[in-house]
Amino acid sequence: MAERTFLNPSQAKEIEEQLFSTLRQQVGRSVPMPLPRTDFWTKVGQLLDTIEMEIHEVYKTVGPSLKMQTMQKRQANIRRTASELARKRMVAMMQHSASMALRTEGSQGQDLAAMDWSRHDPAEREFYSNATEQLNKFKQAVNWNSMQRGIAAEGLLNEPRLAAGTTQLDSFVPESGGLTGQGPPTIALEDDNEPLPESETDEEELLAKAEEFPELAGTQPIIEPTIVDTEVGQNHAAAMELAPSKKKEEMDFDAWAAAEAESEPKIEVVEEEDLEPVQGELLRIRVIQSMDEPIITIDGEITLGAGDVLFLDEMTANYLVESGVAELATL
Hints:
Shape: flat
CATH architecture of the domain at 9-148: Up-down Bundle
Order of helices and strands: HHHHHEEHHHEEEEHE
Strand order of the largest sheet: 6-3-7
CATH class of the domain at 9-148: Mainly Alpha
Distance between the termini: 95 Å
């Protein structure tokens, strides 16, 4: 946010008098009257900020009083005057821009003088340029030149088309409004971009018809030899079916099933008596002291309570006996 600037009493009084004087001159005029200074609207804003701060100071020091009410009335009067002046000036600028842009040959609009922007606010100049640009767009949309000059002269009065990328001189002028203050004139540019011809062929069909490896075109195909793994003295039951022959041999399915059964590996069944025990020897113990927390064994967590008789692995049982929690209880 920009830092606020306040005016001293003499400057505030001068700006206030200029505001009321400019409004009296603008009333009843159809063209914007020159401003007393180029930064007129900036100074009006600083005047209102100064009065606002004075009202706050009076409220802090004196409180609600007749002086504060007088200052508030003065502030409201300045705001109302500034609003009325801005409205009349914007209307006058729109009227001036429309009269210059929509004038016809032999009309009184040609007698209007161009705006002297050295005696107006820069913000007003930007507003005037935007209004002129919108009016030019309106003229193009409704074909204003044809309406005013006739259809017969339409072919002779067409605006020349310039090359694409043409830059107007107003683009090099930093001030808003360009050289004339009314913005750059509207120009027509050539459109050299011809539409691309529609392709009648389908790219997917071309890719489908294309060879998979065009670089190998003309070479002889390589035939990989078929390797048949046979053993001497052993023939598979399906060998006769795969062998080339002019006469199709009949297949004995019973013999083929028997051969398949003989070729399957036999699975030896191991009796339970032959399995060695995975776990070690279990010891019988009696718990003589309860424990609040469960202990972890190879079978999982168990809770120990006084008087319980358990079968535990040798390592866990010896640990509990040595710690005095349990005792051996052999049968």
